[in-house]
């Protein structure tokens, strides 16, 4: 989607520290981390938010959660604990309107 920062990162048109990618998603380090480990996991397909009709995207959504758990393990936070967050709309903190999963860990969450 034109003008979407995360689409530009997926297309390698904007820089990011990419830590994982497969045919469905890309993960990269958050530029303003809120924890020692703070990754963003985005689908390659542009989806604005969870408010879209996602009935045809159940497999993709499940894939994102499986990938998030894999990334937590690879980053050594699976044993101590981690948080998975999807913000939906501005009132919940969504600033980039491309669905993304925050993976946070490495400290006690409050």
Which class in CATH terms? Alpha Beta
Envelope shape: globular
* CATH homology superfamily: HIT-like
Beginning-to-end CA distance, first to last residue = 35 Å
Evaluate the radius of gyration: 13 Å
The level of helicity is 10-25%
In terms of DSSP E residues, the strand content is 15-25%
Which series of helices and strands comes N to C? HEEEHEE
**CATH fold name:** HIT family, subunit A
Mean of residue pLDDT? 97
Oligomer: single chain
Tally of discrete structural domains: 1
What is the CATH-assigned architecture? Answer: 2-Layer Sandwich
List low-confidence stretches: none
Verbal overview:
- The protein is of the alpha+beta class and 110 residues long.
- The protein has a single domain, classed as HIT family, subunit A (2-Layer Sandwich), CATH 3.30.428.10.
- It is built from 2 helices and 5 strands.
- It has a 5-stranded antiparallel beta sheet, covered by helices on one side.
- The radius of gyration is 13 Å and the shape is globular.
Q: Could you give a quick summary of the protein structure above?
A:
21% of the residues lie in helices and 23% in strands. By secondary structure, the protein is of the alpha+beta class. The protein has one domain (5-105): 2-Layer Sandwich (HIT family, subunit A).
């Amino acid at each position: 989607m034109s003008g979407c920062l995360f689409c530009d990162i997926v297309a390698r048109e904007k820089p990011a520290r990419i830590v994982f990618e497969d045919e469905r998603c890309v993960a990269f380090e958050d530029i303003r981390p809120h924890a020692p480990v703070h990754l963003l996991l985005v689908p390659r397909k542009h989806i604005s938010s969870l408010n879209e009709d996602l009935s045809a995207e159940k497999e993709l959504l499940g894939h994102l959660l499986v990938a998030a758990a894999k990334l937590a393990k690879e980053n050594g936070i699976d044993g101590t604990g981690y948080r998975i967050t999807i913000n939906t709309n501005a009132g919940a903190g969504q600033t980039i309107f491309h669905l993304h999963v925050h993976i946070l860990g490495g400290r006690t969450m409050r």
